[in-house]
Design brief:
By secondary structure, the protein is an alpha+beta fold. Helices cover 55% and strands 18% of the residues. Helix 1 crosses helix 5 (85-124) and helix 11 packs across helix 13 (327-344).
């Protein structure tokens, strides 16, 4: 499957025919008129073999017949007067050489046609297929590659593939080991077309080795997935928009709690300000009490500022920003925002957080969104419960997966109605909800967020009643945590 094969399958040119006729004439002249005692007719075999490069089966047979006739005609002209065994033997040797050369030429021609047919089949596929040698030089380029990349076969052959296509890929050491061991590799690459646009492809490599195991050719099959990637990007953008809508919807449900959380430090600031004035207006101002009141005002002002900052972070639409943190940190951010909701629904809170808490790598806003969603769902599940205590339990701990990996676990348990076994499998499905006014996206988005952090989320019924939700995130080891913190600080 090379340029030589294409040349073999093309029609003969006038120059090729002329050179072949000249060669036959020269051999005939030498064989007939030169006083040599060797059989010159064996040179006709060279002509037959050379003709296989540009003639078909019928053409080779015609050349063979012409060479045989030339050999016989030369013998008749030279030895017509006397019959001698030596010249007859030399003529037979020449004829045998022509016959053997013809059989070899026909066999090679058949093999070349078979290769051409196989190459033609490769041109029928929509995938881009090309072959490169051990030096990354392209030796075969099918029609699919011409269509996908824009380079005609004549321009692509002889070029280095990675330089021509400006290949962008991430090959880890493990991937290279896989290629070396199995001679096969599959992954996603980014190539550049002739017009400068980039194309995403799923690339499959098959390496061919010589008898010593050294690679000398690689066939690369590439399927265009640019539209799929664009669709995934659009879906990711739509999911981000939906997460933002759900986040705002959650904040809307917590409006009373938010107002309470902000008003509390503001009221404390006013109270401490009034107290400061009273201490200052006394006949003998108590500056120590004034200082303490002012310090409390500053503390409450910072608390209000922190609350507003958390709300702005939850409300704004931004890309995920991962940082080293703990699940305890997220719980501390969330509890003040849901206190009013718990108070309105007469829900008691029990918090049992592991100390020191294991470090995880995550987006603070996204994880807060998950925990708020689970806590609000738990509160609503207990809102109509009578006859038993409405208790929300939040527990953090570490779970040992194996000898080398740990998971940070956050459990949120309520004493509500529990989970109906009939709907347990659909609980995290998109648009599935048991609430009359629910969107059915809260738990689905929560699962997506947790899984994007390398973790998992599950839901089961409690031991006696209610539901138990578990969030599991991979724990950062000390070395990993230090490296991640350094990297985030650099960024």
């Amino acid at each position: 499957m090379s340029e030589r094969l294409s040349r073999m399958m093309s029609r003969p040119t006038g120059l090729q025919i002329a050179l072949m006729l000249v060669g036959v004439a020269v051999i005939f002249a030498i064989d007939t008129f030169a006083p040599l005692d060797i059989e010159i007719a064996v040179l006709y075999a060279v002509v037959v073999i050379a003709s296989a490069d540009f003639l078909g089966r019928r053409g080779i047979l015609l050349v063979c017949a012409a060479c045989v006739l030339q050999t016989l005609l030369s013998y008749v002209i030279v030895h017509s007067e006397a019959f001698e065994s030596g010249p007859v033997l030399r003529a037979l040797i020449g004829l045998c050489a022509i016959g053997i050369a013809t059989l070899a030429a026909l066999r090679n021609r058949k093999a070349a046609e078979s290769l051409s047919d196989q190459a033609a089949l490769l041109d029928l596929t929509h995938d881009a297929i090309f072959v490169r040698n051990g030096n990354d030089v392209i030796t075969y380029w099918n029609a699919g590659a011409e269509k996908l990349y824009g380079w005609p076969r004549k321009e692509a052959l002889g070029q280095k593939s990675h330089a021509l296509l400006k290949t962008k890929y991430l090959l880890s050491a493990g991937t290279m080991e896989q290629l070396d061991d199995s001679s096969r590799w599959q992954g996603e690459l980014v190539h550049t077309r002739r017009d400068g646009t980039e194309v995403w492809v799923v690339s499959r490599w098959a390496m061919q080795r010589d008898e010593r195991g050294r690679p000398f050719a690689t066939m690369e099959t590439n399927s265009d997935i640019t539209e799929q990637k664009q669709a995934e990007d659009a879906l990711r953008h739509a999911r981000s928009q939906l997460e933002h809508v759900t986040r705002i919807s959650t904040l809307g449900e917590l409006t009373a709690s938010i107002a309470h959380e902000v008003n509390q430090p503001l009221a404390a600031i006013v109270t401490n300000g009034e107290a400061s004035l009273r201490w200052l207006l006394r006949d003998e101002p108590n500056l120590e009490e004034v200082r303490s009141a002012v310090e409390r005002m500053i503390g409450n002002g910072r608390r209000a500022s922190d609350v507003i900052a958390r709300l702005r972070a939850l409300a704004r639409k931004s890309n995920p920003s991962h940082a080293v943190l703990t699940l305890n940190d997220i719980v501390a951010d969330v509890i003040p925002l849901v206190e009013r909701e718990m108070h309105n629904n007469d829900v008691a809170l029990k918090v049992d957080l592991q100390a020191p808490a294991p470090l995880v790598l995550g987006d603070r806003v996204q994880l807060a969104q998950v925990i708020i969603n689970l806590v609000v769902n738990a509160i609503h599940a207990m809102s109509q419960i009578e006859g038993r205590r409405r208790l929300l339990s939040i527990t953090s701990r570490t779970s040992l997966e194996d000898s080398t990996s740990q998971m940070a676990v956050l459990e949120i348990e309520d004493t509500g109605t529990g989970i109906d076994p009939k709907v347990a499998n659909n609980l995290f499905a998109a648009f599935y909800t048991t609430k009359a006014d629910g969107m059915g996206m809260g738990l689905s988005i929560s699962r997506t967020i947790v899984e994007s952090h390398g973790g998992s989320i599950s839901a089961t019924s409690g031991d006696r009643w209610g539901a138990l939700f578990k969030i599991r995130l991979p724990v950062l080891q000390q070395v990993e945590a230090t490296a991640a913190a350094d990297l985030l600080a650099t960024d």
